[in-house]
Amino acid sequence: MSTGDSNSPFERLLLREIQKVIGDAPIGVSLGQKTVKASGDAGVSRLVIRDRKTLARMVLDPEVGFGDAYMEGRLEVDGDLVHFLEATSQIMRSGRGKSWHNRLFGRWLMFAQGNTRDGSARNIHHHYDLSNDFYKLWLDRKMVYTCAYFPAPAATLEQAQDAKLEHVCRKLQLQPGERVVEAGCGWGSLALYMAKHYGVKVQAFNISREQIQYAQAQAKKEGLTGQVEFIQDDYRNISGGFDAFVSVGMLEHVGHEHYAELAEVIGKAIGNTGRGLLHFIGRNRSQPFSTWIRKHIFPGAYAPTLREALEIFERNNYAVLDVENLRLHYAKTLEHWLERYERAVEQVREMFGPEFVRMWRLYLAGSIAGFRVGTLQLFQVVFAGPERREIPWTRTHLYAGEAGIAEEPGWEKEWTPARY
Amino acid sequence: MSTGDSNSPFERLLLREIQKVIGDAPIGVSLGQKTVKASGDAGVSRLVIRDRKTLARMVLDPEVGFGDAYMEGRLEVDGDLVHFLEATSQIMRSGRGKSWHNRLFGRWLMFAQGNTRDGSARNIHHHYDLSNDFYKLWLDRKMVYTCAYFPAPAATLEQAQDAKLEHVCRKLQLQPGERVVEAGCGWGSLALYMAKHYGVKVQAFNISREQIQYAQAQAKKEGLTGQVEFIQDDYRNISGGFDAFVSVGMLEHVGHEHYAELAEVIGKAIGNTGRGLLHFIGRNRSQPFSTWIRKHIFPGAYAPTLREALEIFERNNYAVLDVENLRLHYAKTLEHWLERYERAVEQVREMFGPEFVRMWRLYLAGSIAGFRVGTLQLFQVVFAGPERREIPWTRTHLYAGEAGIAEEPGWEKEWTPARY
């Protein structure tokens, strides 16, 4: 290791400190343009830090310091960003990325961003009400903002999102005329798919105004207003009886301290004879969500271990019927999103400016890295009330035919970014 | 409700007490031959209690009192035994079947039957060393004493047990030459199947002397001694590195208080890059195993909730890849066992006498009822170390071809009980 002759003693001290955090991870660091660690290994990514103040901030809080500096353009990653972030995962796993400053700040966020009804409204507004036009730039045609299901890795994003909607419906074994409640419905893609392809009646809840308005317009366009009701309200206000409960990508916003409330909501909705599906980002081991992500991207977010999520079902004496881990599918989904995002990056810059561009890139790239290396997992859990006897005999019904791809025209066309 | 005119005041008091326990369950009771509750409903099973002492014992401890009296022939169930036991499940679920006497006795068993190394040796010996000739009377040809996998409900038991072995191998994605360790190998069927059909090397552990001797003889017969080593030892003594860990039907004998030890054993065996499968009887809600079953059938047994079992993987930072609930398959498996058992019942009576015949019938019938109504669940969990990247893309590989039935001659022949 060479700390660079032209650096001052203080700078050399800071570089040594950051080197301790990096440890064995294949990452080189330089201040200005001088390389600190260069093993000659092609697998080594290089972090170029612009100034001493940035370096000092990173020593104080490696995780948030790095994220903020990246966002503000005060450091650059020389090499592939996703590979660099994969390399940092071993730092995060070791705990070296969590300084006392980070832990303290993380705890404060947990308090400040709590998911009470008002808190949830603020947290969801922060992310999902950014602008529908922004999300249209890089999501699929149906605006599905959760992990897709790729029957084969080469499937297109549009195919994979449709296959996911189909996969979820098959897991729920929906029958025409049944009543389904959806908690956290995004732009409404699943609710509309369930109504259109399975003939069920859906009440879909979401507290994002932008998303609900879009979903309501979509229901009108597709002539499904008689079957699907989009309701701008908190999941805690779900009432009435249903045959099935489904929630895709909302549990991350519920917060562990509110799982008892969610269990009560599900219990009241489907009783002892219903069934449901919960789809969520999880962990191997219990830990807070990334502090930087909570600061900028998903306030109040928490990804539970599967064990923690199962508290919800155990409270209701529910049977867990099936758990599938789709982690690699989320990495693939995010690769599509990041690619489309980069193709539309000039439009994003016009909308939100250069810092936002870099912030969002780091979020998408970091998520790819997390799902690839397994610091993030993606679980789909199918559950049923204790008195439900009609449980599937095997899981072969999930894999009948073209692996869950419905026949819809237009998939063969090449994707082009939407214009706003 | 009529308590019967010819019963004494004390008998009428006892009958009223037992009626309180039964509550709304569709069960009639009579002392001698007099019916206490007869709603006229064809779905009502009738319990005929022979004498006052038996009735008093049932008031003191409904669960164990009933089981012991059934075993000793001091009561009869008028109607289908399994249906009767399904009806009692709502009594057990309500907690009314657990008197203070039962709870106290249950706690004492938990203490007396603890799964230390010596305790496990005793507990396993009690059940699995009964006699290989006894188990041959009613198990399938390969002597698989765990839940089968029925590609279709009409499959034979032999087909379903082979399909289960295949299902487990596919979930493990075994490759020729890999090293597999099996904890609790029964009579060796899975170890031999893995070696024969997947070309892996297996170390299989079991503390049952009878089972290990049988398995060793079987390995010789099949010419697999070079590939499969059957070791008569406790799972806690597993040492050395392996590519995969598998355990089918042993976790129930580990005991919740020893999960940390099991996690350590698995962690040492497969490290951060291996994978494994755990197959076990589970629960929707945390509760002790049936007191009567622990007293007579499975000393020291405990069926965890899925959440409790996941503690094992969370400790190791392992990813859960797949969970399948095969509860209905265990009900079906047990139906086959009970049917074969009844066909061989005269031989069982010669071997162990009439009380054993009734005890074992109650155990098999009660298990069918439990898996049907869901007081018992059956989980298969696939897991992987945090650094394992080769995780399956989808689960379609489990369902390729004839739903996991290998081609072996002889299945078409009708099953006939073995002769000892």
Compile the SSE list and pairings.
The structure is a homodimer of 420-residue chains.
Chain A: H1 9-22, E1 27-31, E2 34-35, E3 45-49, H2 52-60, H3 62-71, E4 75-78, H4 81-94, H5 100-112, H6 117-128, H7 132-136, H8 157-172, E5 179-183, H9 189-198, E6 201-206, H10 209-221, E7 228-232, E8 244-248, H11 259-270, E9 275-282, H12 291-296, H13 306-315, E10 319-325, H14 327-343, H15 345-352, H16 354-373, E11 377-384
Parallel strand pairs in A: 1-3, 5-6, 5-8, 6-7, 8-9
Antiparallel strand pairs in A: 1-2, 3-4, 9-11, 10-11
Describe the fold and architecture:
The structure is a homodimer of 420-residue chains. Chain A is built from 16 helices and 11 strands. The first copy, chain A, has 420 residues and is α/β, with parallel strands linked by helices. Chain A folds into 2 domains: 9-108, Nonspecific Lipid-transfer Protein, Chain A (2-Layer Sandwich), CATH 3.30.1050; 117-398, Rossmann fold. In chain A, the strands form 2 sheets. In chain A, strands 7-6-5-8-9-11-10 form a 7-stranded mixed β-sheet, sandwiched between helices. In chain A, helix 11 (259-270) links the parallel strand 8 (244-248) and strand 9 (275-282). The radius of gyration of chain A is 23 Å and the shape is elongated. The interface between A and B is large, with 40 and 40 residues. Strand 10 (319-325) of chain A pairs antiparallel with strand 10 of chain B.
